[in-house]
Design a protein that fits this description.
Length: about 375
């Protein structure tokens, strides 16, 4: 068993070897620019891009032409929200979102507020859930967008996406969801789930970093959103810039693998996750599990340890690679705003660990982790 054990799959994942194999020829013999229309090199790259577009669409029940490639979910979120704000700003200027969204949503809204946008940040309950009633009460005549993440990256809570989408549509409001953490873990159907725009990212799904996509519903006002990167009118003008063919091929392949393996893999992961969680709960005093236990990501458990100093806790976990909150915010030493929003005090938020399992997690690693966490926590106490 290799140490440290990687239990931070919600921060990023290794590239699946099958994905890597598919990508490699596009660095060398098939190196063409997908926008080169006059020769075989370009056509080969373009065919690969269109094949990947279909693979991604198939995973979420979309049409290939509804997929726009971006550099990741951060850019997809920026494109969705800024692009719609720019489209609507002369008539409507209000967005509804949630306090526990990723910074790639919250900071976009903060930016737009400087330009005249108004945002309502809904406060979730102690499980991280928001209710339809909260949304209904926040809707104004000027609301053009509801943006609610499919599942939270720190606590794993899955929101009632289908119902939120239906409520948005009933009120003639567009619905965007950041599904970065959900792709390949929960079955997504953009039609049944009433989603107009969906952000996704390759590196949470065993594809490379620096590739992602925005799903944009063709038959909705969302399709008129204003591009945020102008240039050579790639991606039908939605996002200019030479396509990252290797990343795109990888993302497509990762989506196809996820579609074929999703059910079995997530069943395996939830069994291992439950074993880890129960092992910690039963063997260590004064611990609590955060998030919505009934409906959350199958590979994740977020656990607070009472009576220990948070920084010491994370530093002491030398043999396991875990996260004390979102990896994307761990550059700052603030307690997690997600944990604070669901009611944890600063001390407990600091002493909280996110364990996230993935494709290469074994039962042996879980058994080791349970014993190891017990030893470390008890020695710190
Ligand atoms: C929910 C969520 N949204 C967006 C992002 C950012 O994605 P990317 O790294 O592809 O920009 C992350 C990454 O942690 C995330 O978890």
């Amino acid at each position: 068993m290799k140490l440290p054990i990687y239990l931070d799959y919600n921060a990023t994942t290794p590239v699946d070897k099958r994905v890597l194999e598919k990508i490699l020829p596009y660095f060398t013999e098939h190196f063409g620019n997908a926008a080169s229309r006059s020769h075989l090199y370009g056509w080969t790259a373009q065919d690969a891009v269109e094949n990947a577009r279909q693979q991604i669409a198939d995973l979420i029940g979309a049409e290939a032409k509804e997929i726009v490639f971006t550099s990741g979910a951060t850019e997809a979120n920026n494109l969705a929200i800024k692009g719609l704000y720019e489209l609507f700003s002369t008539s409507k200027n209000h967005i509804i979102t949630v306090e526990t969204e990723h910074k790639a949503i919250l900071d976009v809204c903060k930016h737009l507020e400087k330009l005249g946008c108004e945002t309502t940040y809904l406060k979730p309950d102690s499980a991280g859930l928001i209710s339809l009633e909260q949304i209904e009460n926040a809707i104004r005549p000027e609301t053009f967008l509801i943006s609610v993440m499919y599942a939270n990256n720190e606590i794993g809570t899955i929101q009632p996406i289908r119902e939120i989408g239906a409520l948005a549509h009933k009120n003639d409001i567009l619905f965007h969801t950041d599904a970065t953490q959900v792709l390949g873990k929960v079955a997504i159907d953009v039609d049944a789930d009433n989603i107009d725009l969906l952000s996704l990212s390759g590196h949470k799904l065993y594809a490379p970093k620096g590739i992602g996509a925005l799903y944009i519903r063709k038959k909705s006002k969302a399709s008129q959103l204003i591009a945020q990167i102008d240039g050579g009118r790639h991606e039908r003008g939605y996002r200019s810039g030479t396509l990252n063919v290797t990343g795109i091929v990888g993302l497509g392949e990762a989506c196809e693998i996820a579609k074929n393996e999703l059910l079995a893999e997530n069943q395996r992961l939830s069994i291992l996750r439950d074993k880890l969680e129960q092992g910690i709960l039963q063997n260590i005093a004064d611990v609590q599990v955060n998030g919505n236990i009934e409906n959350r990501l199958p590979n994740l458990t977020n656990i607070s340890f009472g009576g220990v100093d948070g920084e010491n806790l994370l530093m002491s976990f030398r043999d396991i690679a875990v996260s004390s909150g979102s990896a994307c915010t761990s550059a700052t030493v603030e307690p997690s705003y997600v944990l604070k929003a669901i009611g944890l005090d600063d001390n407990l938020a600091y002493a909280t660990i996110r364990f996230s399992l993935g494709k290469f997690t074994t039962e042996e690693e879980i058994d080791f982790t349970i014993k190891y966490v017990k030893e470390v926590v008890e020695s710190l106490r």
